[in-house]
Design brief:
Layout (H helix, E strand, L loop, with lengths): L1 H4 L2 H8 L5 E11 L2 H7 L3 H15 L5 E4 L2 E4 L6 E5 L5 E5 L6 H16 L21 E4 L22 E4 L3 E2 L4 E11 L5 H20 L3
Parallel strand pairs: 6-7
Antiparallel strand pairs: 1-9, 2-3, 4-5, 7-9, 8-9
Length: 215
């Protein structure tokens, strides 16, 4: 928490506003990891999900949460993301973290299948202890749209301490890279534009390491 103490005054400033939300949507450039996924028999979305969540954990500013009126730093993430069920309605997939890429992807694919097969809204996350519910980042993928902005719902606009991330349609760029819309919504007391830039750079680095075969 030493790093947070350097910005406690910024937290006090934004946390006292009617809305403490910062929301930036930008065009992200990534290495084209799809051929690597195909060669490895791994679905690109779930590989991307792992890269995003590992990047979140790598940057302290995305680990801060508000618990019992004090700022804490989470030590883990519970992966979760939205899916579309058979009625084209939203549902939530959630699973336990796995360090191994293969195990992470297998658990993510299984959670997606389970949530997609449910008619009722999956509310299993509601049964978690209140403190445990903070060990999340809200993930949405909208692969059909090249969107330019997005607004996520928050339980309280004054304390939007759980970040919401979204990305859209992947497009091949002339230089062989991928471009996609990517959105980050977070508490401005924790996250500035620079930290969002750091997150984008880290996601690209995570995927580059996979492609190069780094452990």
């Amino acid at each position: 928490m030493q790093n947070f103490e350097h910005r406690r005054d910024r937290f006090a400033l934004f946390d006292g506003m009617d809305s403490a939300v910062v929301n930036i949507t930008f065009t992200m450039t990534l290495p084209d990891f799809r051929p690597w996924c195909k060669a490895s028999s791994l679905p690109p979305f779930h590989v991307m999900l792992r890269a995003v969540l590992r990047s979140v954990l790598a940057i302290d500013n995305f680990r801060y949460r508000v618990w019992q009126d004090e700022v804490i730093r989470i030590d883990r993430l519970i992966p979760s993301f939205t899916v579309v069920n058979q009625h084209n309605d939203l549902n939530f997939a959630q699973f336990d973290w796995h360090d191994s890429l293969q195990d992470f992807v297998a658990a993510s694919v299984a959670a997606r299948g389970e949530a997609a097969s449910m008619t009722a809204l999956n509310m299993s996350h509601r049964f978690a202890a209140p403190r445990d519910s903070l060990d999340q980042v809200f993930i949405t993928c909208i692969p059909w749209l090249d969107f330019t902005s997005i607004q996520h719902p928050v339980a309280s606009s004054s304390t939007p301490d759980i970040p919401s991330l979204a990305w859209g349609r992947l497009r091949s760029a002339p230089d062989g890279t991928l471009v996609l819309p990517f959105s980050v919504q977070a508490h401005h007391g924790f996250v500035d534009g620079f930290h969002i830039y750091q997150l984008a750079e880290r996601i690209g680095a995570e995927l580059s390491e996979l492609i190069k075969g780094a452990p």
